[in-house]
C-alpha cells in the first residue's frame, strides 16, 4: 500500500515526508489509518543513535481506525478506533504475569525498528527497505501496521486525533505515579521535568491525593501550567538551592535523564521513599551507598502499565475532568514535523501531535 510518512534518512538531517510502500499486515497484525501521532522525547533521543537502521519511520504514540487485519487477528476488527501503544510478545513470564513493559522481547519489538524476524515493514519507491516498526507501529505516517498486542480499542465518540499520547508519554508519567511508586493520599511527590511525562505525573499525583506536589522545570511557562494542573509548588530547576527548596518527600520522579538532576531527585527522598526514573540519554547516575539508606531507586518502563487496562482508566479520568491531558497538546500537520520537534525542544510546545 502506498502511504506518506515522515522518513528519517540521516541522523544529521531533518525528517522528509515522502511516499513509501507499506507492507500488508501479517498474522496478528492490523493496518491502521492514523488520525494523530504524538512526537515523544524518545523519538528525538533515539533518532540520533547510529545503530538504528536507516531510513526509518518514527512515531510511537499513534491513534487511528483499523482498516484491515492480517490472518489470525482476533482482538481488533476493521472499523475499530484504537490507540497504539508499545508492543510485547504475550507469552514470556513478564507478559503473562501482567508486566508487558518488561517483556523479554521488548527491545527487539520496540527499539529495533523492524519486525522480530528482521523484516523492515516498508520500502521506498525505489524498492529499498524502510524501517517501519518503531515500537511496533511507526505512526508518523498516514497509515501504520501494528500488532494486535499494542492496540487498545476505544469508544468511537472520543476525539481520536488527540488520544495517541496516551499510548506512551502520558501513560508513562501517570503510570509511574499510580502504578509504580505508587503515590498514596497525603504523600509528597517531587516531579523533575514538566514536559508531557512530568505533567502527566503531576495530574496523576493530584488524582492519587498527594498533599504536596512539587513541579521542577527550567521553563516558567511549564511551571505555571503545572500549577494549573495540580502542582502545589513549582520551582526553577536552575535554582542552586533546589534540593533545599524541594524539602523532603515520600516520592520523587525524574523525567530529564540528566545525572545531576537524578541525583537531586534521590537526595530529596525521606527514609522509606522511592525515586522513579524514566529519562534517557543524559549520562550515568553516581550515588553514595549511604544516599540509598532506607530509600529505593528504580527505572520505570511505560508506567508499569498494561495498556488495555490503563489507557481506558486515563480516558475515564479525562472524562471526569481529572486528567485534562488535552491542555498539553498542540497539533501540527505531518509536513511540519520538524517545526514540531523544534518547538518542543524550545519548551513552547509540551506535546506535539502530528495530523496526517
From TrEMBL:
Ranges of residues in domain Alcohol dehydrogenase-like C-terminal: 196-304
Boundaries of every Alcohol dehydrogenase-like N-terminal domain copy: 26-121
Magnesium found in the keyword field: no
Keywords: Metal-binding, Oxidoreductase, Zinc
Cofactor: Zn(2+)
Signal peptide location: none
Keyword Transmembrane annotated: no
Family classification: Belongs to the zinc-containing alcohol dehydrogenase family.
Protein name: NAD(P)-dependent alcohol dehydrogenase
Source species: Nonomuraea monospora
The organism's taxonomic lineage, starting at the top: Bacteria, Bacillati, Actinomycetota, Actinomycetes, Streptosporangiales
